[in-house]
Specification:
mainly alpha
């Protein structure tokens, strides 16, 4: 196999994993996870986290395989989705910077694995948008591997969440969340610029055709 192809594949996969991991942000959400499960027995807590990861993987893979069809069904172009997705991620990043989290507080402890831990805490609008866009930027193989890798890393973090929380503390988790928010904002701006550039190129071509 061509070395350049393998290297390019690894680089693209790395970029996809990093981008999705930043959006999912398991470290920044640690205080929320701890708060939601603080009165739950250890054995039950592990089951909740396992359920969250399984549901999260299924949801993201469903959007990865059906996202293009959904956009086509509604007649939405990918440059338009780039811009809309970029704006959405920008709003998410601003909210995290201001409040320290992009999620509301939840009081119910029923079905915590699926709701709210899997969705919307792990698989929110940002993660869904990023997964659909990854499919267009890369391919289905890289997108699926990125989803599985990120959720596997998240599962490891959740399995050791108490030790990590003791190490980071609430303040450390909030700092990480805000740093991640800055990176999300940068990714959002890039998505918007990509979409705008596409429409700009179309406008230039149309101008020359008219002339």
């Amino acid at each position: 196999m061509d070395f350049a192809f393998v290297l390019n594949f690894i680089l693209q996969l790395g970029k996809a994993i990093i981008a999705l991991f930043i959006i999912v942000d398991p470290f920044g959400n640690i205080p929320i996870f701890v708060g939601l499960t603080e009165n739950v027995p250890d054995i039950q807590r592990k089951k909740i986290y396992n359920t969250a990861i399984i549901v999260g993987v299924i949801l993201l893979l469903v959007f990865a395989f059906t996202g293009q069809g959904i956009l086509t069904l509604f007649g939405v172009s990918f440059p338009s989705f780039y811009i809309a997705g970029g704006i959405l991620l920008l709003i998410v990043s601003i909210r995290i910077l201001i409040t320290g989290s992009m999620h509301e507080n939840y009081d119910s402890v029923e079905s915590l694995g699926a709701v709210p831990i899997a969705i919307p805490l792990l698989v929110g609008p940002g993660a869904i948008t990023t997964t659909i866009l990854d499919l267009q930027i890369y391919d289905i193989t890289i997108t699926v591997l990125a989803v599985v890798s990120v959720l596997a890393l998240t599962w490891i973090i959740l399995r050791h969440i108490n030790q990590i929380y003791k190490l980071l503390g609430k303040t450390g988790s909030l700092v990480i969340a805000r740093v991640m928010a800055l990176l999300i904002a940068a990714i959002a701006v890039q998505y918007i610029l990509t979409g705008v550039t596409h429409f700009g190129n179309l406008a230039t071509v149309a101008h020359f055709i008219v002339l």
